[in-house]
Amino acid sequence: MIDLGLLKGSRIAVIGLGKSGHAAALALAAAGVDVACWDDALAGRAKAERDGLPLRDFGSEGMAGFDRAVLSPGIPRRHPAPHPMVRAAEAAGVPLISDIDLLAEACPDARYLGVTGTNGKSTTTALIAHVLAEAGRTVQAGGNLGPPALSLAPLGGDGWYVLEVSSYQLETISQVAWSVGVFLNISADHLDRYADMAGYVAAKARLFERMAPDATAVVGADDPHSAAVADALVGREEVTVVPISAERALTRGVHAAAGTLIDVTGTEPRDVLDLAEAPALPGRHNWQNACAAYAACRAAGLAPDAIARAFRRFPGLPHRQEAVGTVAGVRFVNDSKGTNAEAAAKALGSYDRVWWIAGGMAKEGGLGALEPFVPRIAGAFLIGRDAAQFAAFLDGRVPHATFGDLDAATVAAFEAARASGVPDPVVLLSPACASWDQFANFEARGEAFRASVKALAARAAREGAAC
Length: 467
Known about the structure:
This protein has helices at 19-30, 42-50, 58-61, 84-91, 99-106, 121-134, 167-170, 197-205, 224-233, 284-299, 304-312, 341-348, 387-394, 406-419, 442-466, and strands at 11-15, 34-38, 68-71, 96-97, 111-116, 138-143, 159-164, 178-183, 211-220, 239-245, 253-255, 260-264, 270-274, 322-327, 330-334, 354-358, 361-362, 377-382, 400-402, 426-429, 433-434. The protein is of the alpha/beta class. Strand 3, helix 4 and strand 4 form a beta-alpha-beta unit. It is globular, with a radius of gyration of 23 Å.
C-alpha cells in the first residue's frame, strides 16, 4: 500500500467503492486522513463498513468542507449525465482527482509509463512490465489492469510505474508527468459514456497533456484517430513521437508488417525479432502490442537484444488468448477480456477454424469488425442478454445456437469441435461483449470458462479409464 501520510490533516471524499475506490479509501484512512466514502451499490458500502471506512451519502448530504474527491472510474463525470455525487462535488467547489494522482503525489521521484487505447492495453502493459523486470529494473504494474494504483509498492527514483489507464481514469488524472505514454489504437467503445467518438478520443488523448521533460509518445499509426493524435504531438519540443504499425512498413518508428519487428528509429533499419518466436503474442494485433512495448522499453533505456529475449519468455496475460487446456485433441482458448467486437475480431483472426463462444451485453459500435472473420467460424455458441443480436448477424452464414449459461455453451462447443474431424480444433471464448449480465466482471467469466474446461477434462479422463 502507498503511504499517503503527506495528506494527513486533509479531508478527502471517495466517490465509488469499486476496486480502485476501495483501495484509495483504505490508503487514505491508514494515513490518518479524514476520509468519507460512498457507493450506490449496497455491496460496496457493506465492504467499506466491514473495513471500518466511514460512509456519507454525498448525493443527498453534499460535500461541503472536503478538500478533494477521488472519483472512481465507473462513476459518470459528464455523459450521459453527471452523477449526483459529481454534482455535489462541483457544487461545493471540490476538485475531482484520480487515485493515480495520489500515487504521483506520494511517489514523485518514480518514473511513470502510461498505456491507453481501445484494445491491447492490458497485454501491452503486462509485456512492458515483464521486459523491465527481466532487465533488472524496479517495476510495479497496475492501474486499470491488476492492482489499483494505491495498492502498489512505493518506488523511488530508480523505479517505474507501468500503468494501464482507461479513458475514464484519464478524465481526471492531472498530476502525473508521464516519462513514456503509449497510445495504441482507437475504435468505437464506451460510447455510453461519451457524446460521440470525438469525446472518447479526446479523453484518451489526455494522456499526453502532461509529460515529463524529454518524454516519449508511442502512438499507433494504423487507425485515423490515433494518427491524428500523433500529428497533434508533432512540434512539442519536450516529446519524441515514435509511430508504430502492425499493418505497414514505416520510414520512421517501429513496425511489424510482415511479422518481424523492425526498428527504424535510427539511421538504419534493424530486424529485432521474428514474432513467431514469442508464442504468447499470436496474431497481428499482438504485433502492434509488441511494437508498442518495444518502443516504450527502448525509451526506458533497454537494449534491443534484451527486449527480444524478454519477449520470447513472456507468459501472456490471463483472459487474453490464454491457452487453458486441451481435451480430447480440442484446444480451449480463454479470451474473456475480448469485450468488444474489435477485440474479438483480433482473436478470431489468430486461428484458422474456431468454435466460437460469444455474447453478453453488446457494446456500441455494432458487430461489423467481425465481418472479415466470419468464414473462420465453424459454429457459434451464444450466451447472455444480447445473444439474439449475434444470432441475427450470423443467420444464414454460420451454424449457431443459444444457451442459458456459459457451461452449457462450452460443453456443446467441445462436442461439435471434437466431432468435426478438423485437425487441431479450437474452442474460443471471445465474447465481444461486456460480462455484467451474467458475471461480476470479465475475470469471473474467464474463471467460469476455465472451470468448465477442467470439468470436461475430468469427464474425458473418466471415460478413458472406463474404456
